Amino acid sequence: MTREHLTITVDELNALIAARDAAFAERDALRGELRVTKAERDLVKEQLKLMMRKLFGASSEKRDARQGDLFLNEAEQLAPTPATQPAQEDRPEIEVAAHKRKKGGRRPLDAALPREVVRYELPADQLVCPHDGSELVEIGVEVSEQLDIVPQQIRVIRHERVKYACKVCDRTLKVAPAPLRIIAKGLFTEAALAWIILSKFMDALPLYRIAALLRRFGGDISRNTLAACVIRVGQAVQPVINLMRDVLLESDVGHGDETNVQVLKEPGRAAQSKSAVWVQMNGVGPPPVRLFSYAPGHHVEHGDKLWVGMREGAALMSDGGPVYDLIAKKNALVHLGCWSHARRYFVEAQEVLPKEARAMHQPSTQFLHLIGKLYAAEARARKAPHRCARLRRRYSRVVLGQIKDLLDQHLETTLPSGKLGQALGYLGNQWPKLMRYVENEAWPICNNACENSIRPFVVGRKNWLFSDTVAGAKASLNLYSLIETCKANDIDIYRYLVDLFKALPYAKVADDYEALLPWKLGTPARKPTV
């Protein structure tokens, strides 16, 4: 081949170079598509693993012992086997060097419970000694106890108001006055109202089950009657709720959270619309207050008014919802972030990893290890509150610095759409609020206390599903507020409600209502004594 045949023009050379560059670009594009496809595939795998864990896996946080396992026969699971069956009698104490311990056995019944004594004696013809014929005398008793339960007893209280008239003339007639009632001419006594309210809002029984329960014991009461009474009582306690709100707004720390509720008959809204229950609690100093409030939605215009009046500079603890950023800014509150929420993202990131890959070199495991150190420090601080500020300053700040270094190391190099990327993104966005709690020893590390207050409402919602009207929802949340505040103050809820319902009709001025607050009117809950 001659040199003339190898000669090409400049234009032909440029065309060859352009074709080569186009081929390289197409190759890079295909590689990019493959990389994106692999990333998307990994993301789908993560989501599938997480969904399977939520359906069939154990929770990483403490379960509520009252909820149990929906698919577990507790009688079979918890019943002792012959090998573990405790003895009927209490076991004696065993003394060893340096300490004293008791053998395992049945726990004694509460000494404060009323007792009915049943004596078992031998007949007179058996009280003779078989050896010498002498009469046998009593030298003591062997005691065993059983727990007896008396089912609900329904009775009727007949009120008779005596009428008086003058024997001489017929112009004077007097009738003994009737006591005031929380529901004028109401069907139920204060004790019955307290029982109905606790059955619904504490034991999570819907009203139709309460009506069926009453019917079994002779009380043929319709569900509509029960509903009307609950709503009227919930509306009557509003002055007490208002005073509880005043106490909450005077606190140095407030917690906020919200959940969904459905109201069927709300003007201007479809029955399928989701409304909101806003939950508030104070976090510093007695007395503890828990408040549940109804709103048509989760937007800032609904939640902001609940915090109006909280003193400037107080702290607001919440999750990472942007609505709380606006609430804190509008009310000049110090916004604190919740470390439990941040931790949950890393738990999810760890759970999608293969078990053999969950080692300390994994970023999610490293973050969980460091967050665990923060909570360990808080546990030590609770045992010695006077050391809290020092512990946070000298220990927790160092751990926070280690978490920040680890965050900076992985944030820019991790795919944002993956579970680890989501955890890092949440941690990075919330970081200024998450590290703020160490500045004040009274500020909490997380919002768990507020979430725990919501749990009874969520459990009840699974049974009664929705509210019929807005008035019913507001009245119900007032009663939830009283019950949860009594729990927080360790008050006998039933006794308090009975006393409140009796005294409320006689309250006229602010001081009268203030005397009805749970921590003033209530009596301490009875604790078992052994």
Automatic annotation (TrEMBL):
<dbReference type="InterPro" id="IPR024474">
    <property type="entry name" value="Znf_dom_IS66"/>
</dbReference>
<dbReference type="Pfam" id="PF13007">
    <property type="entry name" value="LZ_Tnp_IS66"/>
</dbReference>
<feature type="domain" description="Transposase IS66 zinc-finger binding">
    <location>
        <begin position="128"/>
        <end position="170"/>
    </location>
</feature>
<feature type="domain" description="Transposase IS66 C-terminal">
    <location>
        <begin position="481"/>
        <end position="519"/>
    </location>
</feature>
<feature type="domain" description="Transposase IS66 central">
    <location>
        <begin position="185"/>
        <end position="474"/>
    </location>
</feature>
<dbReference type="InterPro" id="IPR004291">
    <property type="entry name" value="Transposase_IS66_central"/>
</dbReference>
<protein>
    <submittedName>
        <fullName>Mobile element protein</fullName>
    </submittedName>
</protein>
<dbReference type="InterPro" id="IPR052344">
    <property type="entry name" value="Transposase-related"/>
</dbReference>
<feature type="domain" description="Transposase TnpC homeodomain">
    <location>
        <begin position="45"/>
        <end position="118"/>
    </location>
</feature>
<dbReference type="Pfam" id="PF13817">
    <property type="entry name" value="DDE_Tnp_IS66_C"/>
</dbReference>
<dbReference type="Pfam" id="PF03050">
    <property type="entry name" value="DDE_Tnp_IS66"/>
</dbReference>
<dbReference type="InterPro" id="IPR024463">
    <property type="entry name" value="Transposase_TnpC_homeodom"/>
</dbReference>
<dbReference type="InterPro" id="IPR039552">
    <property type="entry name" value="IS66_C"/>
</dbReference>
<dbReference type="Pfam" id="PF13005">
    <property type="entry name" value="zf-IS66"/>
</dbReference>
